[in-house]
Design goal:
The complex is a heterodimer. By secondary structure, chain A is of the alpha/beta class. Chain A is built from 10 helices and 20 strands. Helices cover 38% and strands 28% of the residues of chain B. Classes of the chains: A alpha/beta, B alpha/beta.
Chain lengths: 440, 253
Amino acid sequence: MTQIATGADSYAAQFAASAQASALPNALASLRDDAFHCFDRLGFPTTRMEDWRFSNVAPIAQTPFVAPERTPTYGQAALDALSLPKLGGPELVFVNGWFMPGLSTTDGLPAGVRARSLAEVLVSDPDTVLPHLGRLARIENHAFTALNTAFLRDGAVIEIGAGIVVDAPIHLVFITTGGGVPVMSQPRALVLADANSQVRVVESHAGEGDTPYLNNTLTEIVVADGAVVDHYAIVREAQAGFRIGGLFARLGRASNFSSHAITLSGAIVRHEAHVVLDGEGAVCTLNGLYLGNGQQLVDNQTTMDHAKPHCDSYELYKGILSGRSRAVFNGKIIVRLDAQKTDAKQSNKALLLSEDAQVTTKPQLEIFADDVKCTHGATVGQLDAESLFYLRSRALSEAQARQLLIHAFAADLLSHIKIDAVRRQLDTLLTERLPVGAGG
Amino acid sequence: MLEIRDLHASAGDRQILKGINLTVNAGEVHAIMGPNGSGKSTLAGVLAGRDGLEVTGGTVTFKGQDLLDLEPEERAREGVFLAFQYPVEIPGVNNAYLLKAGLNEVRKHRGEPELDAMDFMTLIRERMALLQMDDTLLSRPVNEGFSGGEKKRNEIFQMAVLEPTLAILDETDSGLDIDALKTVAGGVNALRSPDRSMVVVTHYQRLLNYIVPDFVHVLSGGRIVKSGGKELALELEAKGYGWIETEPATASV
């Protein structure tokens, strides 16, 4: 108790200092104030709360994280050492939540498309972002959303003008590095895709060092009528790193949004994706691939909120778990009274490679309309012994056979990744990171 | 080539093989016949190294070495091939990929250079013609969505690519119509050679009209109870297995 109380006090002191140090627009200062009060009231979640029942974040609550200032010394060499995928297009790099102009490039953005630092926009052009910040990511009931918002200083703002198709994917790189101090990085990303525009946004999350850190990120995406947005969140946190990520999207009429949540590493990784299908004929795909080993906890939470008629949603999450890792999948589908002709599909499949790995999967359907199709399914299994024997009888080693089968398990999700550089790298990482020895 | 001596094996607590003796020389084709549950598939599984079967006695020597001591993949690289009774569907694993990986493992083991994509495709096309296989099956996942006949053809096609010295065909005829049976048998016959032996496990004599064996053995109650030439198969077809099961087991103990 004392430890947690100390933690809260320390956040209050840091919040007060941060509020004094930053000259923020009034509207934002008051949003931050509200957010801190929410966080203060809520405290970190415990396993007594339904949405956190299987996800114990006590290790996060017990670590006194420090909100860091800019880290201007972070250089290209350190960035290269993380070997993130090279997408060859615009790339905004953030270190501990702060934009790093020297490491970033916006070359190649077509006219009518802007990719800027949130801190800069808040000074030069706050009216662009203020109506959107916190509109989808609500602070009232979520401690981590409140915490991120309370400490909101910097992040990415991407605007795509109406009808513009952006060819090169926009890469957002979020790096957390504490140099021995338990830092909390809380960047924010705001993507505004205007009517009939098309864009691909890739978030890469990575961290360094053996000290625990918290990468608490929020992404809000507004997909206007007819827009097509393809989003990726690739999580490669350090072994001691914690990552809580929220993705919030609102889909307009006949728009198409897909998001791929790829979790490769991190001590506790929780990824939440909350989508409102808020215009007729909108289509949403949420895919996820998660790897767990050691003592990792990987938690995926999704809400697919069908608010309007004739919308389709597809969800496919697949996990590969070994060691003593645990995974949680909680998929909520809401079909509002108005949302007739909804077609919603959801599936979570997990492959357990060890005796001690665990997965908890829970579909949650709340259907208020009467003319809808909703299907959900979950499977948990092990590598098929007969398939292993078949491959070995064709001269493949046991390790090769296991790798091939594990890879095959993930193959359909990989095939949905349309950015070649991302898919190729995931292919390689999957092969490198999967435990192939007998018994996992 | 293959020497099986007093082989005993069990699955769980059920003793299935109770003293098998069999010698297969290079170039010979041996048919193993017998009623359901006599141990035919268990024998095939033990030779290929299937999990869950425990050898409780006896020896199996293959090309002078202890076969039972080898992992399934080591057996395959040494030249043992099992055509599965129920070929496994493996979604997400490409047929051609599996073949190339398997073939290159075998070649590495033999001290031969790995085949590049070009040479591999040349070989593949030549062997596909042998089984009248459709090109599109190559790029599909292993056995996924294949018809019964396609699966069995695919087994023999894999055998044609891997070029084993000992091929074990486990009820390759089951579930095949007569045209498919002829195609599969034609493929097998094309692969007969003086340095390749075959053990053909079957319940019915019909397959043996097309793959004519040098020897026929009848397995019953976990033992070989009768051996003879190809005419034994015809006798079994005419009289059924009943007359054999009632005979005392003369072949062992």
